[in-house]
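Chain particulars:
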Amino acid sequence: MKISLRIPLALFMVTLLFVNCDSNNEPEDTYTNIVWQDEFEDEGNPDPEKWSFDIGTGEEIFGQPGWGNNELQYYTDRPENISVEDGMLNITAKSESFDGSNYTSAKILTRDKFESIYGRYEARIMLPWGQGIWPAFWLLGDDSGGTVSWPQIGEIDIMEYRGQQPTIIHGSVHGPGYSAGNAVTDSYQLMNGRFDTDFHVFAIEWEPDVIRYYVDDVLYNEITPGDVSGEWVFNDNSFYIILNVAVGGTFVGPPNSSTRFPQTMKVDYVRVYED
């Protein structure tokens, strides 16, 4: 009699588990058509048909060094700072004197090569770590016309990370009235593990009235027009992809004696899907 009662109870509990599974925490299953990707299969430099470089300290663009963020690195296109090896893109920050800077690193982008609006953007990455290390996977609105500047063009930070906090990443948007320290943002923390010891998939699903943020397909943030304090600028423009590792800056502070160099961000792939 006890056995016959336990079997239905077990079946009931399993059924209840599946009924109560919150599908809202899972990615949309409509994003299956890849429209752009880089699997980093060709050794050497990043594919020039897909990526270009930002070089220098940004002073010529922003009127002040450090790409407007007080960053300390000089971005180069040297193989010491960026290369594709064994199916991985490696972006390496180094402590060295180079053209007036004390650090070097790299930053690549798809500007004028691939730009899009809406869809699922994802990358599988293992992050570096250490005080003052600032890697990011992000999107920036097209500014090629020169008539609209940041933050009006919009910025979507799919993954941003302070190297001194190796269990936490951030997902944010920047726009007019909610930029820099006033960005709309949320964080995701690993309970078991660190982002510098294994690969993780960072993604957004971007639709006209919502941007959803995922880590390893776990939804942790949703941003809608009602969440921003200014104009929603994510329906009017195409955006391009950026991967970089900064050193220092207002978001992370400078490196200190505990920071070990070199530090490398490893990227397994970047993919973009349409709905």
Observations:
- The CA atoms of residues 248 and 254 lie 4 Å apart.
